[in-house]
Amino acid sequence: MAPKSFFFFFLAIFLCNTITSQSIPKFTSILVFGDSTVDTGNNNYIFTLFKGNHPPYGKDYYNHIPTGRFSNGKLVPDILAFLLKLKKYGVPPYLQPNLMANDFKTGVCFASAGSGYDDLTSSISGVISMRKQLEYFKEYLEKLKGYFGEKEAEKIVKGALVIVSSGSNDFIFNFYDIPTRRVEFSMNEYQDFLLNKLQFFVKELYELGCRKIIVSGLPPIGCLPIQMTAKYPLHRTCIEKENSDSQCYNQKLEKLLPNLQAQLPGSKILYADIYTPILDLINNPREYGFEEIKKGCCGTGLLEAGPLCTRKSPVCTDTSQYIFFDSIHPTESTYYHITEYLVKELLPKFSTVDSF
């Protein structure tokens, strides 16, 4: 076993022990909404170019199979589901045709790569909008009731860990790289527009029975390899303006969620700061065993993602030394570090919520 593999083996043991030793509640299920950071394969079943169901994606996943996850291996929901003893082989996509009753009981993923809170984002990319994800969730609830009865279905949803991760595509597609929304909104106005959409989305989840919700903030968008290529292709430094925008949005979101929680009795709605842990990895890579921070593992690492990251693309020899697998999406190694933060800092806070 390689040294880095040892590290993640012991990190997994540490996280399991953390869950055992801390007052982390049991969850009935895991339900996932959002974009490619959490899409476990729904885009495989729709007509879109935004797919990750081909090599080299999934090269380090179970049986080295590309599943539609935009990474070399597991995503945060997969790791969490395993640690919480809900799933052994990751969270299945809702659109997967061969789902069993137990898959519905322990949770599914509704996320779609290329999606965002702004409906324009998903219409540009031809993927499943956040609005449509809610419609699929309603459909899922009816199937859940059919399998387990109405009372048990309500219990499952109430006790589920709900993850919402979206927003980056809205800024990249509509403001930075394709300035569609820049014509009608200032950055401040567009942030507020998206947060209003997010607020509506979370309220809908609550109305449908969800009570334990984690909402992810934005990563340092200016440090994504594809953004460096677009703005500083030679010097390859993080775009501070885009990072500053991410921080401003995150501050607004962090302030919004407690107010939203106060409006929804019995809910616990937590802000997940993914900006800080990712930037920490970028600023101090060797402390965490990383070597490459400015490009992805696939191809040149400068532009390749989705349809441009193909089986013909050369791939780095050791993905665990890379923060990004393609020019946008993190490696499994990076996702393990984000999961460590969630387990230590956020999950214990759900212990104050009424049990299912």
UniProtKB/TrEMBL annotation:
UniProt GO molecular function: hydrolase activity, acting on ester bonds
Coiled-coil region list: none
Top-rank taxon: Eukaryota
Record flagged with keyword NADP: no
Keywords linked to the UniProt accession: Signal
UniProt cross-references to Pfam families, sorted A to Z: Lipase_GDSL
Signal peptide as annotated in the record: 1-21
Sequence similarity: Belongs to the 'GDSL' lipolytic enzyme family.
Protein name: GDSL esterase/lipase At2g24560-like
Gene: LOC107809326
